[in-house]
Amino acid sequence: MDKSEKKTTRRDFLFTTSYTVGAVGLGAVIWPLIDQMNPDKAQKALATTEVDISQIEPGKSITVLWRGKPVFLKRRTQEEILEARSVSLDDLPHPEKDEERVKNGKDEWLVMLGVCTHLGCVPLSNKGDYKGWFCPCHGSHYDVSGRIRKGPAPKNMEIPKYEFVDANTIKIG
Amino acid sequence: MSEQEYVPKSKAGKWFNDRLPLLSLASHLTDYPTPKNLNYWWTFGGILTFCLLTQIITGIVLAMHYVAHADLAFASVEHIMRDVNYGWLIRYIHSNGASMFFLAVYIHIFRSLFYGSYKSPREIIWIIGLMIYLLMMAAAFMGYVLPWGQMSFWGATVITNLFSAIPLVGDSITTWLWGAYSVDNPTLTRFFSLHYLIPFLILGLVVLHIWALHVPGNNNPVGIDIKKPSKDTVPFHPYITIKDAFALLLFMIIFAGFVFFAPNVLGHSDNYIQANPMVTPAHIVPEWYLLPFYAILRSVPDKLGGVILMFGAIFILFVLPWLDTSKVRSAVFRPIYRQFFWILIVDVLVLGYVGAMPAEGIYLVLARVGTVYYFLHFLVILPVVGYLEKTEPVPLSISEPVLSGSADYSMAKKDNEKI
What we know:
The complex is a heterodimer.
Chain A: H1 10-35, H2 41-45, E1 49-52, E2 61-66, E3 69-75, H3 78-86, E4 109-113, E5 124-125, E6 133-135, E7 140-142, E8 148-150, E9 162-166, E10 169-172
Antiparallel strand pairs in A: 1-10, 2-3, 3-4, 5-6, 6-7, 7-8, 9-10
Chain B: H1 11-19, H2 22-31, E1 33-35, H3 44-63, H4 73-82, H5 87-115, H6 123-145, H7 150-161, H8 170-178, H9 185-214, E2 233-235, H10 236-261, H11 291-299, H12 303-315, H13 320-323, H14 335-355, H15 361-388, H16 406-418
Antiparallel strand pairs in B: 1-2
């Protein structure tokens, strides 16, 4: 090979185009192999659940399964709502007002994923230092609004997308 | 590999060996010159090979009867226990085999730490060994999920949620791992597939591990380089094979003790309750062999920080050959390192103990102290001790006894520098 000649040759062009086409082809083959592991159509089809809430007394809660995860539906008492709203945002690791976590005018209903934001365990209700929920796995304490107060969890328990279909029915998802 | 060329005696053997030198390989493995002072801590390589083969054989049998489906898995495991001929035996060997595998691998790893087997020129052996260890943990974790009991389900939930700590893409990765919006049937089926795959990956790495070992040859209790073959070595067969076989026999007695007399003592009774996504057991713990890392995870009050430290505790071992600055391999001649070695053992045992306890009060304090010390050992103590420590005289060969007196000491020093 003549080293002094640095001109781009026909061979360089063929190498570059071959590598490029090869890389695109490889990517096109790898992507289906990766994406097949994402949730399939059957999983996505289970994306909504309707719940009858007419039987829930104030202060009580029920747990339903939505997308394989427990959802807490809690009908809170006035004292609990007042308590949740009296907390200063400065005391919260993940500041969120209680009003932002419930539907306007439906303040007594707290609908949230019963999944600890640390590592995914189901917290126990009416436990912990803040009378809300306590996660037994790694000791996270949540308040009556499901907001993280103490422990390793980084965020408040998640509020899923939901709506009131009528006065007695909630549709989650 | 410096043995002279092997020539099969028979004509057929020669014909075959010229085309595929398997007989040469067998000859290399039989004659392989091994340090004559290897003690019983060196028998765990053979024991680990036995463990791997036991898991593969019992695993293949279990897969003939197991059903990887969220609705059927739990019942199919009970079917194995009650209906399948000798199913109870095979499953108990497999489940306790995992524990015995880890027991042996921890002894093997600490052997390497004590005698400096990870040091030059054996870094690649060490790194391949760590890759095997990582795959073992992955296989053990996924295998523990398959019976679809409460501990299976919630262990899987907690471990997969570790990935959700990754900034930005964490949640997408977790969903991708699950194949659902929580640990569910798609998670179980892929774990089964991977659980079946990993042992064969380990087998491949074991071949590389032994190949890399056979380049410099075994380290030994005095940790010096030796001539091979010489009066310091013995052929692998029959000297080492018989010693390994005897140690394996003792190991199998302990193994059988667990299988027949205490098959569930290392497990958790909650795993005999079928998985329920609505209820987390009051106290979830991983299997005993993962407890020290679990303690490190829980000792950090921050989610991402805990995950980073937990994985860091394993990955720090990959750079261990470069963190240890001492040129002397064996702790036998390292009076200061020797003491820190035992403190590390105690530290890891304490971490294991607090990993099994609730993360509160004194246990949390102990976990934090233990975690700090663990990293201190590798990041500060090892490099510093290597520089400051006055090592004891190292013998010139295995056969030559170390004589007291200054004359030998000067020679020993010279050898010391050579290593």
